[in-house]
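Run FMN-binding negative transcriptional regulator through structure prediction, thanks.
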Amino acid sequence: MYIPDIYKNENQEAITAFLKENSFGILINQTNGKLWATHIPLQLGTNKNGKTILEGHISKENPQWKGFAENDQILAIFSGPHSYISPSWYDHENVPTWNYIAVHVYGKIKIIEGDAVIQSLKRLVDKYEKKSKNPVRIEDLSKKTMMQTRGIVAFEIEIEEIQAQQKMSQNRDDKNYQNIISELENTNTNQSIAVANEMKKCPR
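Sure, done. The structure for FMN-binding negative transcriptional regulator is below.
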C-alpha cells in the first residue's frame, strides 16, 4: 500500500502487538481468475522451522481455498481504530481527512493437514476462550463435534513482507494535535476515543 514516510510504522514490536490485538483480518488471493476475500481470524505464530506465520482456516464450501495451489501468494489486511478528522478542529483552513491504523501482510500460503489442523484450532480456541467464564477446550470436545473439522481447510501463511501505516495526524503541530485529541474525545464514539488514545501514545 502507499505509505507516506511520516505515517510509516517500522516498530516491529508494535506491529506484532497490533496483529495479536486486531487479528480479525481479510484474506485476499486470486481464485478462478478473480480476486477473492474472506473475513476470518488469523493467528500470528511461528512454524516448526522458526518462520513467522499467520494461521487460520476457512470452510471447504468456500472456493477460495482452491486458489491456494494455483497461486500461493496472498495478502492479509488488518485494520485498527479509525475516525474522521474535521478541518474545523484546526486553527487554520485545511481539508477533511481520516486517521487510521492498517497493516498489510504478504506471504505464501499452504494447506495443512492431520494433527497440525487440530493444534492450529487449539491455539485459536485457547486464545479467544482465555477470558471466558467457562473456557471451552478443543481436547474436551466430543468426537461427534470434532467431526466438523472435516468441513474446513486449515492453512498457514509464511510471512514475507509487512507494510504498516499509522496515520495519526503526525503532520500537525502540537497545538492542533492536542485539539484533535480533545475533539475526538468529545465526539464520544468508540472509534474516535480509540483513535484519541492511539494519538496519545504516538511519539512527538
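The chain is about 30% helix and 35% strand.
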